[in-house]
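I am writing to request your help with a piece of structural work I have in hand. I am sending you one protein, given as its amino acid sequence and as whole-number tokens for its backbone shapes. Kindly check, if you would, that the fold set down in the tokens agrees with what the sequence suggests. You will find the record immediately after this paragraph:
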Amino acid sequence: MKLISRLLYLPVVGMLLLASCAKETTESYDKFEDQALEAWMTQNRKDLLGNLQSDGNYYVEVLEAGEDLSTVKPVRDTACWVRFDFSGRDLSGNIVLTRRAAEAKLVNTFTKYTHYVPYYRYCGVANTSLMEGTYLAMRNVLHLDPEYARAHGLDEEFELRKGSKIRLYMPSRIVSTGGVEGDGGYEGQYSLSSQRPFIVEMEIKSIVKNPLESEGSEVDSFCAANGHQWLYTEDGDEAGSSKLPEGYDDENHPYKLREKGYRWVSACDTVAQVYVDMLYDPTSEADRLKFDFPVISEENALLWENRQYNVGFEPYNGSDLEAKIAEVLKERFHADADYKNPGLESRDADSVGLEGEAKIWYIARMLDGFIYETNIDEVKELVFGEVASEGEAITYKPSEDRSNQIGAYYYVVPNLCYGQWAEFVTVSTQGFGATGRTGSTTTSGGTTGYSPSYYDYLNYYNYYNSYYGNSYYGSYYDNYYYNYYNSYYYNYYNYGNTTTTETTTTISTEIPPYTPLVYQIYIEPAEEE
């Protein structure tokens, strides 16, 4: 027994020694990197040395103070969701990741699959979804050097609030455990390996305390600016509402309400903020959405959503995209005659119903008009400039498992006729939910020099977006000094594609948490028996 005990004891001792060595190596590396970053700051930004933050050993530069704290609360005042614009660079100034289309275009990484708008993430008492450095800056008081503060008209204790714009110079341990990875495609970025300092410029666009209420306000204001909405409720006793219509002769039937100026009606009398336009005609100029709506409250100040998505590059450059889409839809689906709503033309037209089956063609958008997905090839060609995979109608049966489709289909599709166009707007509860959808790039049919998963840092680090989400911890302490001295402040990698056989690449756009959506759909006519 003594021999066995000794044999069992030896591995334990070895593990303790290895753990001790790892800890010492970690502390040694952190100290070395801090010294290296300090040396770089001394050489390049000596004026910021006094703005070192002890909670993460990062440096702060205040570019714009933001709105007056006497009228707005700082980010750290409460658990909230924050919209913030940002751009990240390595210490040589090379753009690594960005939410700015112009910067992505500058480094030839602009992609039409990326929605270049401010980032939208939860910022609470525990960090589960933000780059650690940005989280620290938003949740803590920033301590500025007295001389720096006086020179810039700032308080020595500075708090980020709406309108604040800062630049952070961060050691790798508060950037990412595994580095920033990308292929120059989705999200428009290149890669920065682990153990590399990072510079992030960020601007607080808005602070949202209640994301559900905020997106509901966005949907309501969108509908109000694009034709007004009518509510179907169980009681129907509120202004601008009624009970569900019993038939075509009901004065509150969607077709008659349209004549009164109400374009959108509730999809269901018990589901809030899912609105349908039952008379949508994609070939009609009058039915083309404006994709704009006013700011309705300070909390949900729609700084980037109150205008049509426009990045200055095709197809979102103020061109006639909507007119072109109308042309290809008419050619594809109504080449022989103008579109006629079957329910309006024939009052006894068959609807899909709860037991039916619908084959659906669709265009899926954000509220600002950005098209993130479609199965119509002609529209793909117009928007993305390519047809990576041939589209086909999706088959939807309301009575069967609906987990692979957004929830709004269940409330919208059964009420539609075969051969009918419609459009609907929905909140995230009936869309992709509180966690949204992670954007991705996947390659099949060949081999490539890039990892097939987590192509971009934003999705790698923020894969779980909800408050109680998980965090990913990679091999943080592996290969501490590997190639560390090799051109430390310069580009390190060859970004060339090493594909060896023909491949098919599928790209899906990130859908942020609590994001309302607009769908324009066509139900194929029923097959004749």
